[in-house]
Amino acid sequence: MVTIASKSNTEPADLIALKGHLPLIGLTGGIGSGKTTVSDLLKGLGAGIIDTDLIAHQITAPGGIAIPLIEKEFGQDYLEPSGALNRAKMRALVFAQPEARKRLEQITHPLIRQETIKEALKSAKSGAPYLVFVVPLLIESTSWQGLLDHIAVVDCPEETQIDRVMQRNKLSRAEVLQILGAQAKRQDRIAQADTVLHNHGDLEALSAEVHDLHQKIVGITKV
Ligand code: ATP
Asked: Which fold has domain 15-47+129-223?
């Protein structure tokens, strides 16, 4: 069984130390599938939520812990006047140059991992009955294998994803398709799911599926 890949010796031990103490759930899905909507519903049911996408944003916000390292590696041009990462400029760079993506990830991934561990330990200590790690590229990554007790995938038709993301992020269809092309295929994601949450209906229908998932997880006594 593969443990969490990390450059630091201390990191895997910290997350793995939680295994067996409370259920550890991975929540994933393609862009705009509804991960945040689902994690908000689970949070309302008492789950401890660790959103790695939110952490990635926080570390690259003004004053974020990744900012000095990004400035050193890519230059001030890649920062906004506010001191935040210039996301549009960085997105363009990493799409054009795969090695730039690697350099960026060498900075961000260990920091995201570090903050993920901190938040997970905090949630576990505060008495959350289970932890949900929201990881957009969970299926694409090997880092989570061996840690999670249950993988939940939020799924909806690709056309729904495209519509939602175009509307929410004010992106063109071509830009959304480019992002989708870099993510796992819908069927590959579903193939790895313990639970599929179908999000092609209204929020009420999704909420009913989330309640069922919650019941299933709290029923996991031996993990
Ligand atoms: P990302 O991958 O970009 O982080 P996500 O998977 O977290 O996205 P959400 O942010 O939860 O997806 O949802 C994408 C958009 O679609 C949001 O604007 C959300 O309000 C909307 N949305 C999600 N589910 C539904 C639904 N069942 N009905 C209507 N709108 C929805």
From this structure: Rossmann fold (3.40.50)
